[in-house]
Inverse folding.
């Protein structure tokens, strides 16, 4: 492996690829060849660097200069001035905020609020390594944790370490991972399975996608460690069908791990064997629910099972199965290497560690971030997120994707962790962070949420199948000015019934946004009963209002 | 993969490749790459240094081009900065001299006094 004097890291996450990152990468290579610098400068395609809205993004090392929003015509300039002559092209350097005039000439991993407030555990390699080269993962301590586990620890010690770390499942529910593993570890069976849930379907969530694209080996390593801990020799990654690039990179990573003997038989000469295969989903939101996901792997219609028994005891093919989220698994290797105390030192006491969020909506820095648990909403929105564009006011944040609750301004200083959020009827969930400014109408926003659930309800149980549709109808009536006071009570009753009686998480959490909005934005919703839409978004009401 | 030692071997090899991105490079070698430098042969000098670094399997060195220093007459100019030591500026560095700078200064920490045109 040759040493190069400079590395050009081109972000190859899906958002940047959609903005033409592949062309940018090819142009860099072409220009570098033209200046005969091919043996001096290496062009590397990496996973997501974070500021997705600023794509295509490129970082050049050793200087650590980040260029953003690159156009094909910018590349010859960067190659000539920066790479050939050593002068940074200031006007193309990434700016922290769109509306700030300041240009930060260098973006190493410090100094910028955007990166400063972040703590990268799960995303430790994202945007820093080439996900298609196992050597680059190994260079950053990759597979060291697996080696340590297999050669130094007994399976029950591994479960103890993960339990002591207090790691909670990062898919949404926040169930303690160590406890989950211990159920499966204790159950006797001739076969057990590790399933990685990568069927990320929550609107606005794309963290698992970018983790798989940016650091696929971290998931493989986490799964193999889980397999050893609970006594499973087979793993399945269930990836959402639309995630073509994730599937491609995971498949390549699995192949490389097999070639290096990091998967397969007798890993590290320990006698432990582990295999991983990929299954792709067909695009149903419900298959993110673990029992529906298992049904889907078995070839059945993706509908949830009645619990108990839980998958930990009787899951895939009736065998004990651990189902873990992508982000959860990516946390495992660092916990093994650095110890549970280290992990607990990050975040809050009840929710240690970090959380990866996808920030979107009315916010300046849209993209992927990783912050310690317990950071306040205000810090996320105004420091990491760079504030709300156009000088508009903050109206609410929806955490946890479409199935999460909505938090108004009063909650800006609330710490973001599992406990605190569930107390106010929201959830940390899958890590989507939708910011909505004060020009949007609550009824209108809720309508679009409920429309999604009408579409995605699998129809197996009545509360979810009927409830979502009725809620959507009432919201439509509200926005048209035909709803009555009784409708509000009906919505509350329906929502409560769904929470209590729906078969799975989909129906139980579908009314979360509605319930929180009925509590925090009651005035605005009730104004619609009097034929007024305070923001003027509901068109039929707006005209009525103006006519009066 | 038979043992942790096998993994260690791959890591050591791969680290050389990715070290550059850690910002941990201690030693800096900066080459003037203005029009004057390029005309005087700075490109060849740079290639010689990179080749020598590769041949000797050195790590932790950041080799970067920079603009004109204002001493066009002395180009190609090479600056060597080792932490805790004064910056040494060499003038009229031919590829041959460049290789010797790597061998003597970077590897053995012996400054080649007769080529030095400045210290900071």
């Amino acid at each position: 492996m040759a040493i190069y004097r400079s590395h050009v890291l081109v972000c190859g996450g899906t958002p940047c690829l959609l903005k033409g990152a592949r062309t940018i990468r090819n142009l860099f290579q072409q220009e570098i060849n033209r200046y005969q610098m091919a043996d001096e400068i290496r062009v590397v395609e990496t996973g997501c660097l974070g500021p997705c809205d600023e794509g295509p993004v490129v970082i050049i090392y050793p200087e650590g200069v980040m260029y953003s929003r690159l156009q094909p015509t910018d590349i010859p300039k960067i190659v000539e001035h920066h790479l050939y002559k050593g002068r940074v092209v200031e006007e193309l350097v990434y700016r922290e905020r769109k509306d700030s005039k300041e240009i930060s000439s260098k973006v190493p991993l410090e100094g910028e609020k955007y990166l400063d407030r972040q703590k990268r555990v799960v995303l430790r390699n994202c945007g820093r390594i080439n996900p298609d080269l196992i050597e680059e993962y190994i260079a950053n301590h990759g597979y060291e944790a697996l080696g340590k586990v297999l050669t130094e620890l007994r399976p029950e010690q591994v479960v103890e370490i993960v339990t002591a770390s207090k790691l909670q499942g990062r898919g949404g529910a926040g169930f303690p991972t160590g406890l989950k593993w211990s159920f499966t570890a204790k159950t006797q069976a001739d076969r057990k399975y590790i399933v990685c849930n990568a069927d990320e379907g929550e609107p606005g969530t794309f963290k698992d996608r970018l983790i798989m694209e940016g650091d696929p080996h971290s998931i493989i390593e986490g799964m193999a460690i889980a397999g050893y801990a609970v006594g499973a020799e087979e793993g399945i990654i269930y990836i959402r069908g639309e995630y073509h690039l994730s599937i491609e990179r995971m498949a390549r990573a699995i192949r490389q791990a097999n070639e290096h003997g990091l998967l397969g038989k007798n890993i590290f000469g320990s006698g432990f064997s582990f295999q991983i295969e990929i299954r792709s989903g067909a695009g149903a939101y419900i298959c993110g629910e673990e029992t529906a996901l298992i049904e889907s792997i078995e070839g059945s219609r993706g509908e949830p099972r009645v619990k108990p028994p839980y998958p930990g005891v009787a899951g895939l093919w009736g065998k004990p199965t651990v189902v873990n989220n992508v982000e959860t698994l990516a946390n495992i290797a660092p916990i093994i290497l650095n110890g549970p105390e280290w992990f607990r030192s990050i975040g809050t006491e009840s929710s240690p560690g970090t959380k990866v969020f996808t920030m979107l909506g009315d916010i300046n820095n849209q993209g992927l971030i990783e912050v310690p648990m317990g950071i306040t909403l205000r810090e996320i929105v105004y420091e990491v997120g760079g504030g709300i564009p156009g000088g508009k006011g903050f109206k609410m944040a929806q955490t946890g994707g479409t199935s999460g609750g909505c938090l108004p301004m009063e909650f800006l200083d609330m710490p973001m962790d599992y406990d605190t959020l569930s107390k106010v009827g929201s959830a940390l969930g899958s890590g989507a962070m939708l910011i909505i400014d004060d020009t949007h109408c609550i009824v209108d926003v809720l309508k679009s949420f409920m429309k999604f659930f009408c579409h995605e309800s699998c129809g197996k149980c009545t509360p979810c199948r009927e409830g979502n549709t009725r809620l959507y109808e009432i919201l439509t009536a509200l926005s048209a000015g035909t709803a009555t006071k009784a409708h509000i009570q009906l919505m509350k009753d329906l929502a409560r019934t769904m929470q209590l009686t729906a078969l799975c998480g989909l129906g139980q959490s579908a009314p979360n946004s509605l319930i929180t909005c009925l509590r925090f934005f009651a005035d605005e919703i009730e104004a619609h009963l009097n034929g007024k839409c305070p923001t003027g978004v509901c068109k039929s009401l707006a005209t009525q209002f103006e006519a009066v | 993969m038979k043992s942790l030692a096998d993994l260690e071997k791959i890591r050591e090899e791969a680290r050389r490749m990715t070290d550059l991105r850690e910002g941990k490079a201690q030693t800096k070698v900066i080459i003037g790459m203005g029009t004057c430098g390029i005309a005087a042969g700075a490109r060849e000098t740079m290639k010689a240094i990179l080749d020598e670094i590769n041949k000797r399997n050195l790590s932790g060195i950041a080799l970067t081009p920079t603009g004109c220093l204002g001493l066009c007459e002395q180009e190609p100019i090479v600056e060597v900065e080792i932490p805790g030591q004064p910056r040494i500026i060499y003038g009229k560095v031919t590829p041959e001299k460049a290789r010797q700078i790597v061998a003597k200064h970077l590897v053995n920490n012996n400054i080649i006094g007769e080529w030095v045109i400045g210290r900071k």
